[in-house]
Specification:
498 residues; alpha+beta; five-stranded parallel β-sheet; 16 helices; 20 strands
Length: 498
């Protein structure tokens, strides 16, 4: 069993900072890496040591695996945590890390490789009797043969890239007439995005929900599931709002999905933290979609309902420790909601809105967590994903978690750029979300830019923030009655915004 005393985090922003905080609690010293664009980032300041990798573009900095490994060897680092994105699901990088005598805080290179290909993953899990969406079992390139298979499956069908994700190399085909054109586009996009033009065909689930299961496995063969996350509120096939548990999953369905997820993990001898993603139809039948062999952006909601620090568990597993708990030891405590605060303009097709954080004030209060990697006055770089922060709330039930989230959104003060905060407030208050009756087509069905036509003035936003402070003070007084209430600024408005 190897002990980690020095950890390099091969990532940036909020996830790097989040990993370092747990490492510090565990008595592990940390090394940050950064690009020139991130020189003043909080994760750089927080780490015990920091090394500049190069210019801002990720292929000249955060994707330089060999340089990162050399840095580890030069600084006497024991292990590398890749976070998510960048090198986190790069099997070749994971292999080089272990070959260099370092610990990779993640699964084996073999597991990453198998689950990195959607086709290989489907083939690996087939023997575990896990529900799969009807489709081809191998890559297909012959258009005539593909048309025959599509007709057998039945339209609409989905053409998907075997490698990668994020909606790239994915095409919905409604009829045979458009099949050839859409297949050529999917192959071209997959080749461009992933260097691999392999595609396969699946039946298209018309009203899908995206529900995933968090798993943890140790190197002794023990695997558990930490329940589900509902991730159906998406734009451009990428998540914006997540919650745990799902509003529609029964205890019986939860157990069946959890056991299926454990089967997926065992199919590739998985250890570490991983997420098994399922697509769920309108009859609540679930089908295996893919496995993400890393920590997920939305992992905090799982931590909030289970009380488990997933980064801590990752590190302990990487050291060779067995899981300290069994499946029967895990239970759901309350409800958690997470929104991703992106520097995007929802009124302009969610396009990035890069600029300076002129004002940046985080919400605070009981049941509120903010994972971020920025400070007031910083610029949002154009080189990376435009996520500013993750805002998470926890409540004793779903209604309380949602209400806390709306209050926290109202208290979040960001100026200088457009963000997804207004969209998330709209979504959380929509009848479809409140009732739990929504799917991945939520944005397409219910959202238009006009829904956000009323943009609050600065005065209105200040009052909303003040009301939110008053709300959270009342919440905190329930816990600590001695603490005095803060005064809410007076206003002569005829109508107060609630």
């Amino acid at each position: 069993m190897a002990k980690i005393s020095k950890l390099l985090v091969a990532n940036r922003g909020e996830i790097a900072l989040r990993i370092m905080r747990t490492a510090r609690e565990m008595g592990i010293s940390t090394v940050a890496v950064y690009s020139e664009a991130d020189r003043l980032s909080p994760h750089v300041k927080f780490a015990d040591e920091a090394i500049c990798l190069g210019p801002p573009p990720s292929n000249q900095s955060y994707l330089l695996g060999d340089k990162i490994i050399k840095t580890c060897l030069d600084l006497g680092v024991d292990a590398i945590h890749p976070g998510y994105g960048f090198l986190s699901e790069n099997a070749e990088f994971a292999k080089k890390v272990t070959q260099a005598g370092l610990i990779f805080v993640g699964p084996s290179p073999e597991s990453i490789e198998v689950m990195g290909s959607k086709l290989a993953a489907k083939q690996a899990v087939a023997k575990y009797d896990i529900p799969l969406v009807p489709g081809t079992e191998e890559a297909i390139s012959d258009i005539a043969a593909a048309k025959v298979k599509a007709a057998e499956i039945g339209y609409p069908i989905l053409i998907k890239a075997s490698a990668g994700g994020g909606g790239k190399g994915m095409r919905i085909v409604e009829s045979e007439e458009e099949f050839e054109e859409q297949m050529q586009r999917a192959v071209s996009e997959a080749q461009s995005a992933f260097g691999d033009g392999a595609v396969f065909i699946e039946k298209f689930i018309t009203s899908p929900r995206h529900i995933e299961i968090q798993v943890l496995g140790d190197q002794q063969g023990n695997t558990v599931y930490l329940f589900e996350r509902e991730c159906s509120i998406q734009r451009r096939h990428q998540k914006v709002i997540e919650e745990a548990p799902s509003a529609v999953v029964s205890p019986e369905m939860r157990k069946a999905m959890g056991e299926a997820a454990v089967g997926v993990a065992k199919a590739c001898n998985y250890y570490g933290a991983g997420t098994v993603e399922f697509i769920v139809d309108d009859q609540l039948h679930f089908y295996f979609l893919e496995m993400n062999t890393r920590l997920q952006v939305e992992h905090p909601v799982t931590e909030m309902i289970t009380g488990k620090d997933l980064v801590r568990e990752q590190i302990l597993i990487a050291e060779g420790n067995p899981l300290p708990f069994a499946q029967e030891d895990l239970q759901i405590n309350g409800h958690a909601v997470e929104i991703r605060v992106y520097a995007e303009d929802p009124k302009n097709n969610f396009l990035p809105d890069i600029g300076k954080l002129v004002t940046y004030r985080r919400p605070q209060g009981p049941g509120i967590r903010v994972d971020d990697g920025f400070e007031e006055g910083m610029d949002i770089p154009i080189y990376y994903d435009p996520m500013i922060a993750k805002l998470i709330t926890h409540g004793s039930n779903r209604e309380e978690a949602i209400n806390r989230m709306i209050g926290a959104i109202n208290a979040y003060r960001i100026t200088g750029i457009q963000t997804t905060l207004d969209f998330c407030r709209f979504a959380l208050q929509h009848e479809a979300f409140v009732s739990g009756q929504f799917d991945t087509k939520f944005v397409e069905r219910y959202f238009t830019p006009e829904k956000l036509e009323h943009v609050f003035s600065e005065e209105e936003k200040e009052l909303l923030a003040a009301l939110a402070v008053e709300f959270f003070d009342k919440e905190e007084q329930k816990i600590n009655p001695i603490k005095p209430m803060r005064a809410v600024p007076s206003t002569n408005w005829k109508n107060r915004l609630i």
